[in-house]
Write a structure and sequence with these properties.
This protein has one domain: Alpha-Beta Plaits. Strand 2 and strand 3 form a beta hairpin. The protein is built from six helices and five strands. The chain is about 30% helix and about 25% strand. By secondary structure, it is α+β, with helices and mostly antiparallel strands. The strands form two sheets. It has a three-stranded antiparallel sheet.
């Protein structure tokens, strides 16, 4: 039997063929890029009144018992000189917060943001919220794991 030696491949022959980019492929890539954007909450705690509506709305959205929620309002009392005190309410997302994924998939805001009566909780893309963060003091930017 005769052995046949094959010619070595050139660089052009060894590269895989490039895929054609069609409109459908471009749409899929764009949709994937958009869906991978990170979202979060911008919380302006300077004006939080401590009404607990965000906490209650979260508990009711998921039918959790009272005290269990993806949002917890922390009450912070700072002692000041001359027997004075400064009271701050801080809405803080807990480990249970998933930014109301079922709601946001439908185009709605998370329950805490849509029910906040003082309008201090804002939902959006992290890069957009980060721009707003520097506009005033006492704001917190939060993102889930």
């Amino acid at each position: 039997m005769k052995t046949v030696k094959s010619k070595p491949k050139t660089k052009a022959q060894s590269k895989p063929a490039a895929k054609k980019v069609t409109k459908a492929t471009a749409k899929t890539v764009k949709k994937t890029a958009v869906s991978k954007e990170k979202y979060g909450l911008l919380i302006d705690y300077e004006y939080c009144t401590g009404c607990y509506t965000c906490q209650v709305a979260c508990s009711q959205e998921y039918k959790w018992p009272a005290g269990m929620a993806g949002m917890q309002v922390l009450e912070i009392v700072q002692k000041l000189p001359k027997d004075r005190a400064y009271l701050t309410f801080l809405p803080f997302p807990t480990e249970l917060c998933i930014l109301c994924a079922p709601r946001t998939k439908k185009g709605l805001h998370p329950a805490c943001a849509s029910h906040c009566m003082a309008n201090v909780i804002k939902h959006g893309r992290l890069k957009d919220l980060a721009k707003e963060l520097g506009r005033k003091p006492r704001m917190v930017l939060w993102s889930p794991k």
